[in-house]
Design goal:
Blueprint: H1 2-18, H2 31-39, H3 44-77, H4 80-91, H5 95-113, H6 115-128, H7 136-167, H8 172-195, E1 202-204, H9 208-220, E2 228-231, E3 242-245, E4 252-256, H10 257-262, H11 265-280, H12 283-317, H13 328-365, H14 368-378, H15 388-394, H16 400-413
Parallel strand pairs: 2-4
Antiparallel strand pairs: 1-2, 3-4
C-alpha cells in the first residue's frame, strides 16, 4: 500500500513538472511564415538573376531540339549521310568497322556544326551568370575529352545496335532496347572509375570533423562505405553537389570541393542525408527500371516511325533500309522528338525521387534549417518560386520553395 501511494505521488509530481507554467503553451510554428522568411533572405537582384538563368533553360530545351532536328534533316536531305556511308564502305569490308567509320564521321560533323550552340550554352552563358570558372582553353579541352570518350564508347554501342538490326530484322526493336539498357548500365558502372577521373581529380577527404560525421551517418543508414572522397569540381563550376554511388563493395561517398568550402556542417550533412536517401531507397535501380520501360516504348515507336519514313523518303535520301548506318540521322531525329515530348514525364519521375530523398534526408539528419539553407544555395541556378504547372513541366528537382516548405513543415512536426 505504501509503495502504491509513493508511486502515485511520484507520477503526480512528474505530471505537474511537465505542465507549462501557468498552463501556457508554446506558440504554434507558422510553416508558411518560416518558409517566406527563408525566401526573403535572397536579395531581389539575385533572385531575378537565377530566375532568368533557369527560365532561359526552358528556351534552350526548344532550341536544342530544333537545332538537332535541323542537323538531322540537313544530313538526310543533302545526301551527306549516304555519302558518309559509302565512304565507310570503301575503306573497310567489315560491317562493324563500317558502322564505326560512319559513326566517326557523323560525330565529327555534328560536333563541328553544333559547336556554336555548345559554346554559347556551356561556356558563354555559364560565365554570364557567374556559374563557370574555366577559361576557354581548359573548357575546350574537356569538350575534346568528351568527344574522344563518345567516339569510342558511342561507336561500340552503335556497332552493337546495328548488328542487332541486321541479325534480328523482325524483333530488333525488342533486343535493341535490351542491349541499349545493358550498355547504359555498364557505362554507369564504369563512369566513376574510368571516365570521371579524366575530367577531375578525386582524393580522400582528410578532415575528420567532416569525414567522421558522414561515415557515422552512412553506418547508421546501412551504407557500407569506409571512405569519403572529394572532387575538384571548382576547376569547372561554382555549383555544389555530392553523391553516394556503387554496389557490391564499391560504395563511394563523394563531395565536391564547392560544397566543402561554401557550406556549413549542418548544410553538408543535409546534402549527404539526401544523397544517402537515393542509395537506401534504391533510386538508381528504380531509375534503371523506368529507363528500360522508356527504352522499350521508344524503340517500338522508332521502328514504326523508321518504316513509315523510309517508305516515303528512303529512296530520295539514298538510304537502303533500317540496317543502313546512313539511317542514323533519321533515328536521332525520331528519338529527339520522343525525348522532347517525354520531358515533362521524365522530369516528374526524377522530381518524385528527389522529393523522396529530401524526406529521407530530413528524417536521417534532423537538420531542417541546414536543409533550408542549402536549398537557398541551390537557388543560385534554379528558380526559387515557380508556379505549380511550371514546376511540374520543367523541374527535375523540387523547387527551392517546395524544399524549404518541406523542411519547415518537418520542423513544425518535430519541435
Amino acid at each position: 500500500m505504501f509503495r502504491t501511494l509513493l508511486a502515485l505521488l511520484v507520477l503526480s509530481a512528474g505530471v505537474m513538472w511537465c505542465q507549462p507554467v501557468g498552463g501556457s503553451r508554446a506558440p504554434a510554428f507558422d510553416v508558411v511564415a518560416a518558409t517566406d522568411a527563408y525566401l526573403a533572405k535572397v536579395p531581389a537582384e539575385k533572385k531575378a538573376q537565377s530566375d532568368a538563368y533557369f527560365e532561359g533553360g526552358y528556351w534552350l530545351i526548344l532550341w536544342d531540339f530544333l537545332y538537332a532536328a535541323a542537323v538531322s534533316v540537313l544530313l538526310l536531305s543533302t545526301h551527306l549521310s549516304a555519302r558518309m556511308r559509302s565512304f565507310a564502305e570503301r575503306i573497310t569490308p567489315y560491317q562493324p568497322l563500317r558502322t564505326f567509320a560512319y559513326w566517326a564521321q557523323y560525330l565529327v560533323v555534328t560536333f563541328v556544326v553544333g559547336a556554336p550552340l555548345a559554346v554559347y550554352e556551356g561556356f558563354i552563358r555559364e560565365h554570364q551568370y557567374g556559374l563557370a570558372t574555366q577559361t576557354f582553353g581548359p573548357w575546350l579541352g574537356d569538350q575534346l575529352k568528351t568527344f574522344a570518350v563518345t567516339l569510342f564508347l558511342g561507336g561500340f554501342a552503335i556497332a552493337v545496335l546495328f548488328g542487332i538490326v541486321r541479325r534480328l530484322p523482325r524483333t530488333w526493336h525488342i533486343w535493341g532496347a535490351v542491349a541499349a539498357f545493358a550498355l547504359v548500365a555498364v557505362q554507369a558502372m564504369i563512369f566513376p572509375v574510368f571516365i570521371a577521373p579524366l575530367f577531375n581529380q578525386y582524393t580522400k577527404l582528410d578532415d575528420p570533423a567532416i569525414r567522421e560525421p558522414i561515415l557515422s551517418l552512412a553506418r547508421a543508414n546501412g551504407i557500407p562505405a569506409t571512405e569519403v572522397y572529394k572532387v575538384d569540381a571548382s576547376r569547372q563550376s561554382t555549383r555544389i553537389s555530392a553523391n553516394v554511388s556503387g554496389f557490391l563493395g564499391t560504395e563511394r561517398i563523394t563531395l565536391n570541393d564547392n560544397l566543402l568550402t561554401r557550406a556549413t556542417l549542418p548544410e553538408i550533412m543535409s546534402v549527404m542525408g539526401h544523397e544517402m536517401g537515393h542509395y537506401v531507397l534504391n533510386h538508381a535501380y528504380k531509375g534503371l527500371l523506368v529507363f528500360l520501360i522508356v527504352l522499350a516504348v521508344f524503340f517500338a515507336g522508332m521502328r514504326r516511325a523508321l518504316e513509315w519514313s523510309l517508305g516515303r523518303w528512303g529512296a530520295r535520301w539514298e538510304i537502303r533500309g533500317v540496317s543502313d548506318p546512313a539511317v542514323l540521322p533519321l533515328a536521332v531525329l525520331i528519338i529527339s522528338i520522343f525525348s522532347f515530348l517525354y520531358t515533362p514525364i521524365g522530369n516528374t519521375v526524377t522530381r518524385t525521387m528527389e522529393y523522396e530523398a529530401d524526406m529521407y534526408g530530413l528524417n536521417a539528419v534532423r537538420q531542417p534549417d541546414g536543409f533550408a539553407d542549402i536549398a537557398l544555395k541551390l537557388a543560385e541556378y534554379r528558380k526559387l518560386s515557380p508556379g505549380p504547372l511550371e514546376e511540374m513541366i520543367f523541374f527535375d528537382h523540387p523547387s527551392g520553395r517546395t524544399r524549404i516548405f518541406s523542411a519547415m513543415r518537418w520542423k513544425a512536426e518535430n519541435r
